[in-house]
């Protein structure tokens, strides 16, 4: 079985006669034992009764710890555990999570991210108030390895409700993370799961949902997306696979858009993620001193878009590399987007 499906994997409906909870909190995990305990405790702190909420860790054959023992110790029998027979890759693990979910609402919460008190209550209220919604998500914050807040994601609206022009808004760039969004299981059953690439695959999924369903939103900050050094150390960044995958997503999204908006959205996305590539190039330098990775990111970013601001950022970075300047003091922003 291919690790990266070429088309959306089929999600089978729950069998007749199976007792179904309202919620399925499915936690895909791979070599994140250092963060998983905190993730599980955050869920347990606001978990509904077992009849109302399924909680399960789906382990993609981790090698960093005895994850089953960890889950058993933290969950005290409340959290189920499933281990893949071999490492399947993130997309197949997500597919397993969704197929194993029995609830009407599915929250895919990565094993290194967090939710805040009130997340499930807020999502419940959104679905109760807007039953036509296929998915609902919240504002979120970025946190570091120590769980200290780094910055907030900008709010999409001032009040909770149906996100206006969700298709065009979400198609322009990635505006949410897995930890923020709950999706009706019936939506995955209709549209299938994640496919195509393993960087930015969720962006395509959220846009696919917005094409067919209203999407609800709350500006409450109820989830935390973790940034850590491992997030910039993989081959994805060192080879610019991140930008190449994102371009696949942008092109795939085109088929979901009105003809009159395709060119504008594509140009907007290319520009945004070209600048994002320069940001990653900075991370590769300041975090890993990876000169070759910097050059690859810059080269691919320039294939996507060029403007004077990009050249200014690149020249500034290359000057610091030439002078071997390796310290970086970030500006303190009240909000920042990625």
Automatic annotation (TrEMBL):
One example GO MF annotation: transferase activity
Cross-referenced Gene3D superfamilies: Spore Coat Polysaccharide Biosynthesis Protein SpsA, Chain A (3.90.550.10)
Tree of life domain: Bacteria
Species of origin: Pseudobacter ginsenosidimutans
Protein name: Glycosyltransferase involved in cell wall biosynthesis
Domain Glycosyltransferase 2-like per the UniProt entry, residue ranges: 24-151
Pfam families on file: Glycos_transf_2
InterPro entries xrefs: Glyco_trans_2-like, Glycosyltransf_2, Nucleotide-diphossugar_trans
UniProt keyword terms in alphabetical order: Transferase
Protein transport among keywords: no
């Amino acid at each position: 079985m291919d690790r990266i499906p070429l088309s959306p994997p089929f999600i089978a409906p729950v069998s007749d006669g199976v007792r179904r909870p309202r919620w399925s909190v499915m936690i895909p995990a791979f070599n994140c034992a250092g963060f998983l305990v905190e993730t599980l405790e955050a869920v347990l702190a606001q978990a509904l009764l077992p009849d109302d909420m399924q909680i399960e860790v789906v382990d993609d054959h981790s090698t960093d710890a005895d994850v089953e023992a960890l889950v058993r110790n933290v969950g005290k029998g409340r959290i189920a555990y499933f281990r893949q027979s071999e490492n399947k890759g993130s997309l197949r693990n997500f597919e397993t999570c969704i197929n194993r979910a029995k609830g009407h609402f599915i929250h895919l919460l990565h094993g290194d991210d967090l939710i805040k008190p009130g997340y499930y209550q807020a999502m419940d209220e959104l679905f109760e108030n807007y039953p036509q919604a296929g998915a609902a998500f919240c504002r979120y914050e970025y946190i570091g390895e120590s769980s200290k807040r780094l910055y907030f994601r900008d709010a999409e609206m001032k009040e909770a409700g149906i996100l206006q022009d969700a298709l065009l808004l979400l198609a322009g760039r990635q505006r949410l993370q897995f930890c923020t969004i709950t999706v009706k299981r019936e939506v995955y059953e209709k549209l299938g799961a994640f496919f195509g690439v393993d960087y930015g695959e969720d962006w395509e999924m959220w846009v696919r949902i917005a094409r067919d369903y209203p999407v609800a939103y709350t500006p409450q900050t109820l989830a935390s997306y973790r940034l850590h050094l491992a997030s910039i150390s993989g081959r994805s960044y060192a080879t610019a696979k991140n930008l190449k995958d994102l371009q696949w997503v942008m092109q795939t999204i085109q088929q979901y858009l009105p003809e009159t908006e395709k060119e504008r959205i594509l140009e907007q996305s290319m520009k945004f993620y070209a600048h994002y590539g320069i940001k990653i190039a900075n991370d590769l330098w300041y975090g890993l001193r990876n000169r070759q990775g910097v050059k690859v990111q810059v080269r691919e970013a320039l294939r996507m878009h060029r403007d004077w601001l990009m050249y200014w950022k690149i020249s500034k970075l290359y000057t610091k590399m030439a002078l071997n300047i390796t310290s970086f003091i970030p500006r303190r922003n009240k909000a920042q987007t990625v």
